[in-house]
Amino acid sequence: MGGRLWGLKGPVVIMVGGGHRQGGRAVVAADGVASGAADGTARSRRAESAVPNAEDSGAEAAGQRWYHRSEPQGRLRGDSPSSARGRGRAGRGGEPDSSVWFRLVARDRWLLVLLAEHKVLTTNQIAAAAFGSVRRAQDRLRQLRALGVVFAFRDSYSGGGTSQTRYALGYLGARLIAAQRAVKPPTPQAYHQSLERLGLWPKLGHHLGVNQFFCDLASYARAHPQQVRDPEGAGGLTMWWSEKRCADFFWNTTTKVHPDGYGCWEAHGRSVRFFLEHDTGTEPLAKVTRKIGDYRSYPTDTFGVVLFSVHSAARETSLRAALRRDLAGGDPGFVIATAYRDLGPGAGPAGPIWALWSPRGGEHVAGRHRLAELPQRGPYVVHHEPWPDQPFSQAAFNPLDPTILRLVETPTAPSAVLHSAAAESTTYHQPGTADFADDLTLYDESDAEIDHLRALAPDQPEHRRRRWPTTWLG
Known about the structure:
The longest helix has 20 residues, at 204-223. A hairpin with a 7-residue loop joins strand 15 (427-428) and strand 16 (436-437). This protein has 16 helices and 17 strands. The protein starts with 12 loop residues before the first strand and ends in a 19-residue tail after the last helix. The protein is of the alpha+beta class. It folds into 2 domains: 101-203, Arc Repressor Mutant, subunit A (Orthogonal Bundle); 206-463, no CATH class.
């Protein structure tokens, strides 16, 4: 609520709670808290816990006292109205406002990189990927919104209510990412338009579904470390490529594979790389099965298995029947597994929901397996520190590595490349970082080997694959 204090000279704005008026317009965020605009504009409230030094430790939270100011000020201490409108502009002597750096911790910077890589995430997805609880995520996201580094929006439903809050990079957050990557930052107007397009993006629901798949894997690894970690502490979601990054690597002049995502899941020493096809039921099955032809023209089995995640059991049955009909009983040349998402509570993508598809079985499901129990395919990369611009990249390979490029360019005889590379030392050159060396192996297990590994008890470390192999598996 707001009002005027009579008897004082000049206009005085009174604020209580989460809103204020500027230029005759009330500005309230998606969750009822005063928020910055899409271009990073700051407002007059500052979060209590986000203070840069001890001098601000006595600040009170908005809503706990009456504020009266003669003119609107920015949330960051020392902001003037002009600097608040141009968030991130140079301050004194060409210097940016440094107070935001005092407020961002390592997890905040990691979250900004995650949003830059995957565009938009919901509150629950951010909580699953980076926080121990939804409440902690909400509290910190509210403070990051107050700083202008994230932008929040929601959809209103015709029957009442709203969607879960979605988060993207705010304008100041986009400038920080641009500075980290040493690229030119976007202009406020251009970024404002990009956020408007994101809110009205026709594929937003599909995109959030893909992100949910990977965030569920991250959440499972966080909640059940004893089920995914090996004795060396490695495991879980060790690679997550966005649709854009997949297109940059898998879509080339000769073959065109466009998965919704690409990842690596590790549990108890097993490493499964996969292409994700997230189906919402809006496309006809004929269009879905046409993707099999693209995967057949690509060395898919060299890089991973293909996962089809559909929305219902009926859709899965129809998809498996369509695959048998379109392939006419032939072998696609790579591993296909299907699952439907309404199996019930607790049946996440890491659990026993995946049914292997074969030409003989068709739509019949003989059994379901955990993601870690699927056949291992793809290059194995010795774990390294996550790359600065790619969260969840401990097992990511460098797409510019010569060995990887030879695998892409030689789809008909990959084994020749693999065995010839056995004596070579594979060196990765991550753009913008120091050089580092990695050993790669390529998994190509037979069905008998898979059955043997499934039968092993998890407490038999002598049967596990070596974590740091130095040769190629043919």
